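Hello,

I think I submitted the xanthosine-5'-monophosphate job twice by accident. Can you confirm which output corresponds to this input? Input:
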Amino acid sequence: DWTMKAYRAEMVQRIRDQVGKGRVVCGLSGGVDSSVAAVLIHEAIGDQLTCIFVDHGLMRANEADQVVQTFRDRFNIHLVHRDASDLFLGQLSGLTDPEAKRKTIGRLFIEVFEEEQNKIGGADFLAQGTLYPDVIESVSATGGPSVTIKSHHNVGGLPEGMRMRLVEPLRELFKDEVRVLGRELGIPEEIVGRHPFPGPGLAIRIPGEVTREKADLLRKVDSVFLEEIRTAGLYDAIWQAFAVLLPVRTVGVMGDGRTYDQACALRAVTSTDGMTAEFYPFDMGFLGRVANRIVNEVRGINRVTYDITSKPPGTIEWE
Ligand code: XMP
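Support: Only one job matched these inputs. Its output is below.
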């Protein structure tokens, strides 16, 4: 893409002009925006950039490893990977209210990020993958230009009290343009084409208390579902697809015995911006295959349901 090539070169120059010899930190989440921002900034200033990946232990199966492999091994980006899953899961223990869970995760994220940033001796700039729609949204919300991004919707956002200059190379771009730029930069398709994933991760897909055991169980269900979606060639036709671990046990039969295990829900929607959404109309054969695989392969789950609620009145996530 010729336009993106030129844009890439121009952005690299602008980042160099802005940053000079300064040091930049960037929070990586594994999502498209922070990934593209990090690779672009790295191209501009190399080792003056350090990425911090706060791993809350609530990502999908293998995603944490994939982040580390991609950025450290493939792009040679200086990356701090902090496994903070004990801390996050410990503090989530006993919490059942969705907002309390979100707040706790957001607060810990900032604490851990600052801790890691201090360990590397601080930085002059904070990099963010803010997109044009975030810019418009915050300008119209505050009546003037603003550096804050959608608050509860992005755990990777700038901590209120952190006074650092911002590097926001994607501020002029829409999501589809960020994807084009990401491909131009050689970022693997699994990251560039990835479905959106909420900052609080699996915590808001486990109604009620979050535990490591539940997160592990949900990861198994989720990966069967996503694998089948990919195999069927449906991944790119769907905005988001995921599983929810239901806080209910139901009776089933397995062989000669009776089971009394947990139920799960599958959710897949189409959307253009996440503001409205329609449930994805899988064919029944597909859903039946996925349900069979889950019940047979994931011990602890004996019932599968499919969520056919659209947004509005539902939301995409269950919490
Ligand atoms: P809802 O559930 O509100 O979700 O229909 C709309 C979009 O936002 C994502 N989402 C979040 N993203 N932090 C995030 O970073 C959050 O707390 C959060 N809650 C929802 C959701 O996955 C969907 O893409």
